[in-house]
Design brief:
There is one protein chain. By secondary structure, the protein is of the alpha/beta class. It has 3 domains: 146 residues, 3-Layer(aba) Sandwich (Rossmann fold), CATH 3.40.50.720; 154 residues, Dihydrodipicolinate Reductase, domain 2 (2-Layer Sandwich); 70 residues, Alpha-Beta Plaits (2-Layer Sandwich), CATH 3.30.70. The chain is elongated and about 75 Å long. Bound molecules: L-homoserine. L-homoserine binds next to α7.
C-alpha cells in the first residue's frame, strides 16, 4: 500500500481526497497498489469530515514518517509551500503539486533536487486544470522542436469574458460567480490581471524550451481595460477577444513570451473556447498544431490531474523521469520592446490622414452607433517600440489598443 499526505484541504485538496476515495478500486489497479491518504495537513478543523481522523497541523509528522512516499501540495502560494515541498523532496519523497506560482518561481530548483534525490516532482494540475498538457508536452511531443505555444490559460477570465460578451453580465457579477464555482484564485486580481496566466505560460515555455522562464520578466496584461466598444469592433473584425499567454521561438534563437488580451480570428481554434474552458495550442515542427482543450479550473477537473500524477509517482516509486529544465539568466527571452505584432487601435478626434501617416495602410473597423469622431483600425505588424512612439504622439486621443494574434 502507498501512503500519501495531502497538504491543504481547500478546493483542490478536498477534491483530491474525494477522487482518491471515489475511484479507489480503479486507482489501485492503475497504481499497482492501494493508495491511502494517511494525513491531511490543514490549520483549520473539520470535525464533521469523514476524514477527521487524518487531519494534522504539524508538517514535521509527515516529513518524519518513512511510510509517506508521496506528498501532495495543494496549499498554493510560496509560503509555506516552498519549504514543505523542498524538504519533502530532500527527504526522498516525491511531490505532486497544483501550485503554479511555486512551479513558475522555483521549478528549476525543485526539479534539480528531485533528480538528485531520484524522486519525482510532478505538476500536471498547475496548467490547464484537468487538461493533460505537461506530460503530453514533455513525452508525447518529445520528437518535435516546439516553435510556439499559445493558450487560454485562465478559466476565471475566460468565464468572465464569456459572460460579459454573451450574456451582458456585469464584470463584478461574473467574477463573483467564478469565485463561487471555485475557479478564482484566493486573490482574484491574479486572475484578472493576467498573473495566473503568466505563471502558466512560464511553466509551459520552461518545459518547451528547456530553460526556466521567470514570470517577473514577462510583459503581462489582464482583461480590466477591455470595453464593450472593443468587443463590438472585434465582432466587425470577425473574431473574439481572449486573454492569451503565448511563447514563440524566434529566428535568432530567442523566445518571445507575453500575456495579453488579443483579437483572435474566428477561424482560430482558440476563438470558440468559452466559459471556464481552457485550450492550449502547441506548434511542433513535425506535428504542426496540436490543441488541448478542457476545463481549466474547478475542484474535480484539477483533482483529476493531481490524482493522475499521484498514480504515476506511486508506480515510479524508485526512479525519476526526465522531466527537467535548467535555471537561466533570462538572456534567451526577447526584449518585450522588440516584439512585433499587429494591433487594433481605437481613437477619438484623430482623422484618417493622421492615422495613415502614422501607421501606413490600415484596416478600418465599424460598430453600430459609433460617434463620428471615433476611428478603430487594425495596423500592420509593428514593434512595441514603434507603438510606444506612435501612440504617445496621439496622447489621450487613444482610447484603447489590443494586440492581434494569428493562432
Ligand atoms: N484561478 C485559476 C483559473 C485556477 O481561473 O484558471 C486554475 O489554475
Amino acid at each position: 500500500m502507498a501512503k500519501i499526505a495531502v497538504l491543504g484541504y481547500g478546493v483542490v485538496g478536498s477534491g483530491t481526497v474525494e477522487v482518491i476515495e471515489k475511484n479507489k478500486k480503479s486507482l489501485t489497479e492503475k497504481a499497482g497498489q492501494e493508495i491511502e491518504v494517511k494525513y491531511i495537513l490543514d490549520l483549520r478543523d473539520f470535525p464533521d469530515s469523514p476524514y477527521k481522523d487524518k487531519f494534522i497541523k504539524d508538517f514535521n509528522i509527515i516529513l518524519n514518517d518513512p511510510e509517506i512516499s508521496v506528498v501532495v501540495e495543494v496549499i498554493g502560494g510560496i509560503k509555506p509551500s516552498y519549504d514543505f515541498v523542498k524538504s519533502s523532496l530532500l527527504a526522498g519523497k516525491s511531490v505532486v503539486t497544483s501550485n503554479k506560482e511555486l512551479v513558475a518561481q522555483k521549478g528549476a530548483e525543485l526539479l534539480k533536487i528531485a533528480h538528485e534525490k531520484k524522486v519525482n516532482f510532478f505538476f500536471e494540475a498547475s496548467v490547464g486544470g484537468g487538461i493533460p498538457i505537461i506530460r503530453p508536452l514533455h513525452q508525447c511531443l518529445s520528437a518535435n522542436r516546439i516553435d510556439e505555444i499559445a493558450g487560454i490559460l485562465n478559466g476565471t477570465t475566460n468565464f468572465i469574458l464569456t459572460k460579459m460578451i454573451r450574456d451582458n453580465m456585469p464584470f463584478d457579477e461574473a467574477l463573483r460567480t467564478a469565485q463561487e464555482l471555485g475557479y478564482a484564485e484566493r486573490d482574484p486580481s491574479a486572475d484578472v490581471n493576467g498573473i495566473d496566466a503568466c505563471r502558466k505560460i512560464c511553466i509551459l515555455a520552461s518545459l518547451a524550451f528547456g530553460k526556466h522562464v521567470y514570470p517577473d520578466k514577462i510583459h503581462t496584461e489582464g482583461i480590466s481595460a477591455i470595453t464593450p466598444e472593443d468587443v463590438e469592433y472585434c465582432e466587425s473584425f470577425g473574431g473574439s477577444i481572449k486573454l492569451i499567454g503565448w511563447a514563440s521561438r524566434e529566428d535568432g534563437g530567442k523566445v518571445a513570451v507575453m500575456v495579453c488580451p488579443a483579437f483572435i480570428s474566428e477561424d482560430s481554434q482558440l476563438a470558440g473556447v468559452n466559459d471556464v474552458f481552457n485550450a492550449i495550442l502547441v506548434r511542433g515542427d513535425s506535428t504542426g498544431d496540436v490543441v488541448f482543450y478542457g476545463k481549466g479550473a474547478g475542484k474535480l477537473p484539477t483533482a483529476s490531474a493531481v490524482v493522475a500524477d499521484v498514480v504515476i509517482a506511486v508506480k515510479m516509486s524508485s526512479s525519476s523521469i526526465s522531466l527537467y529544465w535548467e535555471d537561466s539568466d533570462q538572456s534567451f527571452i526577447e526584449d518585450e520592446k522588440n516584439i512585433t505584432l499587429q494591433s487594433y487601435i481605437r481613437t477619438v478626434n484623430v482623422d484618417k490622414n493622421t492615422v495613415e501617416k502614422l501607421f501606413g495602410e490600415v484596416e478600418y473597423l465599424s460598430r453600430k452607433g459609433a460617434p463620428d469622431n471615433e476611428l478603430a483600425f487594425i495596423t500592420a505588424a509593428l514593434s512595441e517600440n514603434e507603438y510606444d512612439k506612435k501612440l504617445s504622439s496621439l496622447g489621450n486621443n487613444v482610447l484603447g489598443r489590443i494586440r492581434v494574434l494569428n493562432y
